[in-house]
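Aim 2, interim progress. The first record below pairs a target sequence with its C-alpha cells.
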Amino acid sequence: MTTSSVLDQRLTLNNGYPMPRLGLGVWKTSNTDAAHSVSQAIQHGYRMIDTAKQYGNEPGVGAGIQDGLLKAGLNRKDLFVTTKVLNGDQGYDSTLRAFEASLKQLRLHYVDLYLIHWPVDGKFIDTWRALEELYRNGQVHAIGISNFDSERLTELLDKTAITPMINQMEFNPLNQEKDLRQVMQLAGIQLEAWSPLGGGAALSNPTITKLATKYQRSAAQIILRWDYQHGIITIPKSTHVERIVANSQINDFTLSDEDVAAIDALDQGKRGLWYDDFAWHNPTNPKALTGDVQAWDDTAKFLQK
C-alpha cells in the first residue's frame, strides 16, 4: 500500500482530463473565511477547490487562490477549480454571461470544471448547451451537473451531445444514491460527493465511531477513506486548518472489506437536501428567476477593483 498523499492522486474523467480525488469545499463559508481556508489548503497540498456563485464567496475564493498559489510557489495550472451556474442564471445566453462574471470574481481566465448547480426544470437543457459551447471553446476543461436524479440525467443524455463528466451529489454513509450510481456508471459519469461527512448524524453513527476507535482515526477520516475505496471524489468543507490537514491524511490505512460492507449497510436513502425541498427548482417560482445567492457582509472588500 502506498502512503503518498491522497492529495497527489487523480482520477481520469470520461474526456481524459485528470481530476484530484480530494479537495476543499466552501459552502456556507464567508469570503473572509473562504480566502483563509483556500489559501491554507493550497499551502498544505490541496490542489482542488470547489465553490459556486450561490455560495456568495467567489471573490473570497479568488483571493485565497491567488494568495495560496503565491505562498506555495505554484502556478494556476497546478490547481483544479470548480464553480457552478446559479439557478437564476440558467438558460443559454444567461449562462454564458454568468460564466464570464464568475471568472472575474474568481480572478481566473478559465475554470477546470463548470457545473449546473441544480436541474431547473425547463431550463437545464439550454443551460447544458451553453456549457457544451464553453467546453468546445476551451474555456473550461470539463463540464458536469449537480443534484441531478436519474430522470433528469436521462433526459439530459437523450437531448444533448456531450455526456457530463461529473455529477456532484449529496453522498455520505446515510445517503448512498445506489440506484443513481448505477445509471451514472453505465454512462461513464464520475460521482463527486458534497456533504461527504453527512454532518452530525453520520459522524456520530455508532458503526462509524466504532471503526474510528478500531483504526485509531477520526470519524471523518473513516468516512473519507470509505469514499476513497469506492472511487468517489470528495470535497469536505472546513475552515479549521488542523481539520483541513487531517481530512487529507487517509492514505496510510485501509478499511477491510468487512468494514467497508458495514458502512455500506448504513444507507438509509435519506437526503438531507434535495431540490424537491426547494421551490426555486421550478422556473415559474420567483426565486428561480432571481437566484438564491448567500449574502455576506464582507463581500465588498474582496471584489476586483
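The second target in this work package is listed in the same format:
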Amino acid sequence: MKIERLSTNKIRIFLTFDDLSERGIQKEDMWREIPKVHELFSEMMDQAYTELGFDPTGPLAVEVFALPAQGMVVIVTRGKYDVPSIGVNLEDELDEEVYEMEVTLEQSDTIMYAFSDFEHLIELAHLIAPLVDEDGKLYYYKDRYILHLESKDLEQGTFNSLIALLAEYGEATSVTLAVLDEYAKVVMPEHAISTIVTHFAPQN
C-alpha cells in the first residue's frame, strides 16, 4: 500500500492485488458494504494520518479506479462540515468515528509498468511483440522507463500472458498518464514495442 499527498485535502492510495488478497478482499468487493472493506478503509486512513498527517474527519469523497494489471488507485478528498444549526453540538458529531463516504468506481484499460533497466525492457519487447497490436508508448520518469499499453482489445488468454511477462520483467506502477504527460520525458510516442524490437537485439 502506497500513499501520497496530492493536495491539502486530497490523497492517493495505491493498492496492489496482493494488498487486497492478503485481507481476503476481491476487486469486486471494493464497492460493496462489507466489514472487510470498512476495515481496509480504516487502515488506509490510519496510515494516511500516520505518514502524511491527513485528517480523515468530515465527509470524504472516495474515487476507486480499478486498473487491469496493477491493482487499484483510491483517491480520497476531504470535504468540509456544514455550519451546524443552533443546538447541534459539533464536538459530539466529530466524536463519532464514522466516515461519511461517497464512493464512485471506474474501470480502466490502462496497463502501466516501470523498468529500471532498459535491457529488461528490450528482452520483454521481443517476447510480447506477438501479443500486442497497439504496442504502446514509452516514457522516462524518475530514473525509470515506463511503458503504457491498453488492454481493451485483448482476449483474456492474451491478457494473462502479457501481464505475466510484464510482471516478470517490470514492476506495476500507479503513476497516471496525466502525471507522465506533464512531467515525464516521452521516449517513444507510439509503437514502442515494435520500435524496440526493430532497433535493439536482446542480450541473450
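The longest helix spans residues 35-52. This observation will shape the mutagenesis plan for the next reporting period.
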